[in-house]
Amino acid sequence: MAKQTAVRQLWYKPVMTDEMVDAVASVLRSGKYIRSYPFEPSEGKHFEDEFRAYLGCKFAANLQSGTAAMHLALIAIGIGPGDEVITVPNTFSSVADVIILCGAKPVFVDVEPDTYNMNVSLVEAAITPRTKAIMPVHMNGHAVDMDPLMEIARRRGLKVMEDVCHAAGAKYKGKFLGTIGDAGAFSFVQNKCISAGGEGGLVATDSEAIWTTCAAMANHGRWKTWFEGHKQYEVYLAQHIDRPAYNYRQNEVQSAIARIQLRYLDEWNAIRRRNTALYHKLLRQFDNDIALPATRPWAEHSMLRYVIKTPRRDALKHFLEENGVHVMVEYGTPIHLDRGYQQYCGAPEGTFPVTEKLARTIMTLPAYQTMTADEVVHVVDIMKEFYKK
Ligand SMILES: Cc1ncc(COP(=O)(O)O)c(C=O)c1O
Fold it and tell me: Picking from 37-46, 111-120, 217-226, which range would have the lowest pLDDT averaged per residue?
């Protein structure tokens, strides 16, 4: 039955409405593609102001990607050579990349088997005299248990930089993720809660110093004095930042798309929560070996990813794909076992057993915001066929 109705069911489909296309066309026609003076009205400035107002934080710097946001936020909170940053190994490699790019070392702690998030009870034992910061990753859109984590950080004098790349609009005890630590780094790449077309990112913070450093370092180190000097005297005054900087700017086309998508953020998160609640209900109604993801009572999940676990993961994945359903394994190699990271933060197999078991058993089912309830039922019907065999 499932095969008859099968349409190719991608694991993710980005949203692009006519309004977004018109906004892109309008930027392209304007001839103004980058934000020149960062304090003047522009798509980028409007997006920052709107996102900041949405989160209720004081400052936002819109950037090229989530990776750029994490990198600059780490620099801005003072991470440098010789420092250690505590994070998790069951995540996207760029989490380790940005720590390493600062000259620091990622130090991993294992995760909880049901939320896939940092096991906060393991953090204190990982702190050394070199530890400077903790980088919780709100995996799949579920909040890390931030109260005990912040308590440890404050007591031990550590900074906290939240990876909110999966969790725009998600909350912990009613508070938006990304506004609890010293800074939060968001991603707007095409498969995230909202996108800025292809790529995008943003740092949110209440610290003016962190914001200024991120925004200036994204723009070759230039800040107010540089631009104002040029405007008033036609001379370029000194850069704001006394070190080499980057071009991590978000362009105006990206910002124009992101501004419109932001208006849909709550609605899309709600649709995904509804779709995943349906998966949850249907997957409990027949005999299978699937473990469903947990949601703690204090978490308002973005449900960016609906990640199940099964010991027969590879066979089920193969069956779903044969039947036109595209599923994902994120992330199939823990960072500490990945070849490219051995000299920086490698560790032998068995060091992080929960993470390693997750890597062998997890699978992301499609649950994006344009997916209908019928499509969820269709995916589950195919899974039922697999478990009948
Ligand atoms: C948990 C996590 N952190 C950071 C990033 C990096 O974001 P970006 O792809 O926008 O650089 C990603 C991935 O896309 C991610 O999944």
Answer: 217-226
